[in-house]
Amino acid sequence: MVEINSNRKIIHIDMDAFYASVEQMDHPELMGKPIAVGGSENRGVVAAASYEARKFGVRSAISGVLAKKNCPDLIFVKPRFDRYKEISNKIHKIFHDYTDLVEPLSLDEAYLDVTHNKKGNPSATLLAQEIRMRILNEVGLTASAGISVNKFVAKIASDYNKPNGQKTVNPEEVLSFLEALPIRKFYGVGKVTTEKMYQLGIFTGLELKSKSIEFLEKHFGKSGVFYYHVVRGIHNGEVKPNRITKSVAAEHTFDTNLSSEIFMLEQLEKIAANLERRLKKHNIAGKTVTLKIKYSDFTQQTRSKTVPYFIADKGLIIENVKELLYQERMKDSVRLLGISLSNLNTEQKKTVVVQLQFAF
Predict the structure, then answer these.
(1) From the candidates 52, 109, 251, 276, which is the catalytic residue?
(2) For residue range 298-350, what is the model confidence (pLDDT) as tens digits?
(3) Annotation says 109 is catalytic
């Protein structure tokens, strides 16, 4: 059996409410106020929310209408992705002062392998503190950090003392930390999977750990093997600088299941718009469009189509998605829809990193 690799020192840095914090930094009159980046009170989807807005249930991926309903004093701000990228570049330069093993996950978060670092400092905890202080002093923003022996635990730990905090999970603490963790806090266990685990009597890491690999495979397929290992602290994925993006996706899980293709198309328009923003932000285009459908019984279906030219435009994406949607009748009501674009131009010309959206 594979054992925990306790020799590695991994830091996960996650900026605090990044887009919203940049807006508050650049516009001091917004400091301390509930703001939403993206969307509006009449239409659109929120891309990010300040902590002041989050207290009212405003979060990314909800409609501007619902956000305003939850928080009547909410201020909507237009996204400035060029500015966010500029700030992100400054932050990543700081990372590279410590190690070249930096794996960006998005503009606002990254893994750093500091097992062997440029400062010669054996304490990953002290390095994380220093990095966060430099980001605050040199950029003007706060960041949170998680420190542990692998990427999985570091990622969970970075969320533990947010905002502007950090948590170290030492090798000897990993198992007890994971056993006590609510299952909804496990990275990669989304809202739907959480509900399914609850139905199976799995509420904590300890209860997940009590299930056999056969049981987890039966109920969760390949993901079951992943859950079996990570709850035992086993996750040996390396920090990879230069990840090549093979697909870009956007998806949404609905509070109420959809049973009409008309309503589905309405939602797919919003998802396509979200996807278009991501693609254009990174100058990405692709040839293969995939529609992802998750039904109310948790079964999943994908339908794909490849076109002879690269596309990134919402209109062209939705045109192909519409064809895939009406390809065959729905077998049940739908709880999740997603669109992804693969066969990308990045595979031919450059390496890029984008943030994928999962239904958490």
Answers:
(1) 109
(2) 788 999 999 999 999 999 999 999 999 998 888 889 989 999 999 998 765 44
(3) yes
